Amino acid sequence: MATAIIGDITVGYDDEGTGEPLVLVHGHPFDRSMWRPQVERFSRAGWRVIAPDLRGYGESTVVPGKTTLDVFARDIAALLDHLGVDRFVLGGLSMGGQIVLECHRLFPHRLRGLVLADTSAPADSETARAARLATAERLLREGMGPYAEEVLTKMVAPANVRALPEVAAHVLGMMRGTDPEGAAAALRGRAERPDYVAMLAEVAVPALVVVGAADEFTPVADARLMSDAIPEATLVVVEGAAHMPNLERPAAFDEALQAFLKPL
Question: Which stretches make up the AB hydrolase-1 domain (predicted)?
Answer without folding.
Answer: 21-250
